[in-house]
Write a structure and sequence with these properties.
Layout (H helix, E strand, L loop, with lengths): L5 E3 L2 E3 L5 H19 L8 H12 L8 H18 L8 H13 L2 H24 L6 H68 L1 H27 L3 E3 L2 E3 L7 H10 L3 E7 L7 H22 L3 E8 L3 E8 L13 H10 L5 E5 L7 E8 L3
Parallel strand pairs: 5-6
Antiparallel strand pairs: 1-2, 3-4, 6-7, 7-9, 8-9
Helix pairs in contact: 1-2, 2-3, 3-4, 3-5, 4-5, 4-6, 5-6, 6-7, 6-9, 7-9, 9-10
């Protein structure tokens, strides 16, 4: 969908271009300019080069405003085709925008834009023939479909990672529920048996009554300790064994998996690491995991930064992306963030987030006291 234009009190205002879009424009400008350096390919013309450069520059907002960019780029390309002879033999800007249509847009909007561009290919071929400069329509159509396919493939990979992450989270909650049932069920059953036997022992065997109450107390303490552990440590059964949940030491593997899905992630750690309990370590890991998963699912971001800032009293976690921001639905403002707050609460942590309206993007911040 077309990302809404950022609003200010003075009216509409374009957001600042993203770094990766600026880089794409620079690369395409270099490739397009290189065409004129090859002898016999295209004659130099300032009007032609200006039109082509303006068309390429429109891609500065290709991911922020994909529909608007696609329409502007397509329209300018047809203008160039109709007015300039001979036309640029390799439509770099169009191919990049078609990739963006496949990788960013969804549903009916994507289908409509694909249809518009296919019709545009036919119109462009007709204009070429009218100017006695026919192209190989099959080659043009194949290039267009390849760009669209690669974009759809990238989006599918991101969705696949999100589905796996959601499945893992659901399985985690189910395992926690089973473990809690076992812990509570065992402790309560033991306490009930001892409590029922207590009155009889007081009357018949007073010397054993004290042991029964001590057993009740021990069972309660043990259950409370295990429940606190469950809030921080999740076990799963694999081949009869039980393995602990990931901790901060596993963040490198998480970041590697996210990078494979196409999101550029940079990690930074400052300060001297303090001691955290297993529960706090797992909570910190899940904060980063949930934030990166939301970035992949909702933010339409190209990069993210994970910062771990250690102080003597706490660990501060910041996960920031260059996506479209919370105002446009980039973050899961419902169960995702509330679930993170619930996870941080037992270890004394706090959660906050921000989304600058002028630059876009979304930043999630969590503070976890050390020694929890």
């Amino acid at each position: 969908m077309l990302t809404p234009v950022a609003l200010s009190r003075r009216g509409f205002r374009l957001r600042r271009p993203r770094r990766n879009d600026v880089l794409a424009v620079v690369i395409v400008l270099v490739l397009n300019s290189g065409t004129y350096l090859v002898p016999g390919v295209l004659p130099w013309g300032p009007w032609r080069y200006l039109l082509e450069s303006v068309t390429i520059a429109s891609m500065l907002w290709r991911e922020t405003y994909p529909v608007m960019t696609a329409l502007v780029t397509g329209a300018l390309t047809l203008v160039i085709t109709a007015t300039v002879h001979p036309a640029q033999p390799f439509p770099y800007a169009v191919l990049v925008v078609e990739y963006t249509i496949g990788s960013v847009l969804r549903g009916r909007t994507r289908i409509i834009m694909i249809a518009i561009y296919m019709v545009g290919n036919i119109v462009a071929e007709y204009l070429h023939r009218q100017m006695n400069n026919p192209e190989d329509f099959l080659v043009t159509f194949t290039l267009s479909m390849t760009s669209l396919f690669l974009g759809v493939l990238m989006q599918s990979e991101r969705d696949s990672l999100s589905v796996r992450a959601d499945r893992d989270l659901r399985a985690e909650r189910a395992r926690i529920a089973r473990d809690m049932h076992d812990v509570v069920g065992h402790a309560v059953a033991l306490m009930v048996v001892q409590a029922e036997a207590g009155p009889l022992l007081v009357r018949s065997k007073p010397e054993r009554a004290e042991a029964a109450f001590e057993a009740i107390s021990a069972a309660g303490r043990d259950a409370m300790a295990q429940l606190r552990g469950l809030l921080g440590t999740l076990h799963k059964d694999e081949g009869g064994g039980r393995q602990p949940l990931p901790t901060l030491s596993d963040l490198d593997d998480l970041v590697h998996r996210v990078r494979r899905a196409g999101l550029q992630v940079r990690m930074e750690q400052t300060g001297s690491a303090s001691s955290l309990s297993p529960g706090a370590e797992t909570a910190a890991y899940r904060v980063v995991q949930e934030a990166l998963t939301n970035t992949l699912k909702h933010a339409r971001a190209s990069r993210a930064e994970v910062r771990l800032s250690w102080s003597p009293s706490a660990l501060e976690i910041t996960v920031a992306d260059n996506g479209r921001g919370v105002a446009d639905g980039a973050a899961d403002a419902g169960h995702g963030l509330s679930g993170l707050r619930e996870r941080l609460a037992p270890v004394g942590g706090a959660l906050s987030w921000t989304s600058p309206p002028d630059t876009g993007g979304f930043a999630l911040m969590a503070v976890i006291p050390s020694g929890q």
